[in-house]
Amino acid sequence: MKSIKTELKQLNENLSKMIATENIILYSAAEQLFKAGGKRLRPAIIFLISKLISTDNSISTEQKRLAEITEIIHTASLLHDDIVDNCDTRRGISTVHTVFNNKVAVLAGDFLFAQSSWYLANLNNLNVVKTISKIITDFAEGEIQQGIKSFDSLISVEEYIEKSFYKTASLLACSCKATTILNKSNEKVQNDFYLYGKHLGLAFQIIDDILDLTGLSKNLGKPAGSDLKNGNLTAPLILALKQKSKLKQIIDEEFQFKQTVNEAIDIIKSTNSIQKAKDIAEENIQLAIHILKNKDSYQNNKEISLLTYYILDRIN
């Protein structure tokens, strides 16, 4: 992503200033997660879309601020997720609630949501405010759906996809759309990039869930198998349930023992469900790529296409 290297460097510098607060505990808590790094995938997508749809291959000041806002919202959601999922580490670093406590981590997450809202309001664009505000509502909806369906062996793939939209894809869909609103793009372009972000987000979540079963903890940003342990039933498991009745018994017992998580992973790997889940992710990637290639004006789409395919390549 050579073309946006400067913007990504500036984004990291700006994020530190944007979360500044006189309360040392809140600042330390928020900074703890930012220090853990991350790929800055969401800001990168916003930058690349900005360049793609502009007449002079540029990124506006407002679009740069939107990228920062999006990353703050994402970070705030991780603070709360880590508490709900009882994760001790994130990207190899101790999670905020482990370093401090649950109360501080919740307040730090709330603080980041509040900061993002303040900067969002200062964009002075009501349509962007409406679009981005929807993300925070969707986060809550996704967490509730996940909680209700915890250890529920009757969950369908459709319910899993819906939950994944709320928890992951909504952020990308809405931020991609907001990028086009700031460009004063027409409604068709806005809807196109909303769908692009939605399909990209769904693919990202499915691949993440596959990696939870097949990847190494050091590459995941969280312990392997943590989804299963927390009762978060994902695509590979849901698809394998139709083939292996033993999985239902293990789920109903709520993975009481550490070895049952490994047993479940082995059973899933003995089926073709991981490949089936990957096929669903690939279908979403192809739908996203189709949107990019469907416009004559998007000829300069090589970098964003490569980033889109990168989502899928994470498990190859």
Automatic annotation (TrEMBL):
<dbReference type="InterPro" id="IPR000092">
    <property type="entry name" value="Polyprenyl_synt"/>
</dbReference>
<keyword id="KW-0150">Chloroplast</keyword>
<dbReference type="InterPro" id="IPR008949">
    <property type="entry name" value="Isoprenoid_synthase_dom_sf"/>
</dbReference>
<dbReference type="GO" id="GO:0008299">
    <property type="term" value="P:isoprenoid biosynthetic process"/>
</dbReference>
<keyword id="KW-0414">Isoprene biosynthesis</keyword>
<dbReference type="GO" id="GO:0004659">
    <property type="term" value="F:prenyltransferase activity"/>
</dbReference>
<dbReference type="GO" id="GO:0046872">
    <property type="term" value="F:metal ion binding"/>
</dbReference>
<dbReference type="GO" id="GO:1901663">
    <property type="term" value="P:quinone biosynthetic process"/>
</dbReference>
<comment type="similarity">
    <text>Belongs to the FPP/GGPP synthase family.</text>
</comment>
<keyword id="KW-0808">Transferase</keyword>
<keyword id="KW-0934">Plastid</keyword>
<keyword id="KW-0460">Magnesium</keyword>
<dbReference type="InterPro" id="IPR033749">
    <property type="entry name" value="Polyprenyl_synt_CS"/>
</dbReference>
<dbReference type="Pfam" id="PF00348">
    <property type="entry name" value="polyprenyl_synt"/>
</dbReference>
<keyword id="KW-0479">Metal-binding</keyword>
<protein>
    <submittedName>
        <fullName>Prenyl transferase</fullName>
    </submittedName>
</protein>
